[in-house]
Amino acid sequence: MPRVFVTGATGNIGRETVRLLTEEGHDVTAMVRRRTKIPGCKAVVADLADVGVVERAVRGADHIVHLASPRADLREVVVVADVLGTGRLLEMWQNGNFVYVSSSTIYGIPGTAPLTESHPMDVLSWYDLGKVTNEYQLRLTPIVGSRRAWVSLRPALVFTYGPRRRDRQFLDYIYLACKEGREFVFDSDEMLETAGCAFIGVDEMARAVVEAMSIEEPGAFNVAGGFCTWVELIETFNRLAGTQATVSVSPDGEDDESIRLPQSRTELDTSAFEAATGFYPRSDLEALVESFLEAERNEGNSDSEAVR
User: Fold this and answer.
1) Which H helix or E strand runs over 65?
2) Which of 2, 90, 109, 208 stands the most exposed, by the fewest C-beta atoms within 10 Å?
3) Which residues of 143-170 are buried (b: 16+ CB within 10 A; e: fewer)?
4) CA angle at residue 288 from 163 to 103, to 5 degrees?
5) CB-based contact 63:2 (threshold 8 Å)
6) For the segment 253-266, what is each residue's pLDDT rounded down to a tens digit?
7) Which class for 306: exposed (0-12), middle (13-18), buried (19 or more C-beta within 10 A)?
8) Distance separating alpha carbons of residues 72 and 81, to the nearest angstrom
9) Domain-wise residue ranges, the chain
10) Is 20 left (phi over 0), alpha (psi -120 to 50) or beta?
């Protein structure tokens, strides 16, 4: 039974990844920051900043899946927890694949063409710098002994819809703005028609993580299940959730009451990942928004029960 050590196991991607691994018969050890029970696996308490306390579990694993991230834009947190913590994990890595989830935000502000993995990186925040630094740490880690390959996944916008709101990230921000009937403003007619982002469902992202454990050659890979413009996403929320957000074009600066989403087109070329694994996620935008809204309704019902 293959042994897999997973960090970030209580996040939405982590929970789904652990579920897939245990269903497929893997012996999973999940690193968590607070003591908790995760069905089908053993949980060990540690933080990226003190990951050395789980050294025995890491060294004994057949694969490492590194999903944990402080999601901070503070230098001290990024350096101590993200960069040094990941470096320590790499030092303890002994066997199989080391799968790391990076981010497509490391490309900075892209143009209009689909992004390949060779596209230049453009660091715009401490968060991005942590991801880029960790990818370099992967590249500099020697493949010796029973180590097989390091794999860095650069996912699109992940549609998460679990119980933890902070894990929903940018999607939640857009939904709440739609719910408030806000106006989304674009710089030009061209941006109105083309600006948007690649996306992937959390379940398909978890499947991509599991598939990455089979990759035999080290490398970085884009992962996405589809692409939508911001207008398409806004209109889908309006139609399925009954929200009344509006869109307009105004090149003359920002209105305090309006929202400007990134005026760029982040479309990912995922052919390298498909060639390496045979797996290509194909996400349906409407189905993902429906799942998101269902989770939102369930959370609202839970809050109502708590008040009672």
Assistant:
1) strand 63-66
2) 109
3) eeeebbbbbbbbbbbbbbbbeeeebbee
4) 75
5) yes
6) 556 678 999 999 99
7) exposed
8) 10
9) 3-298
10) alpha
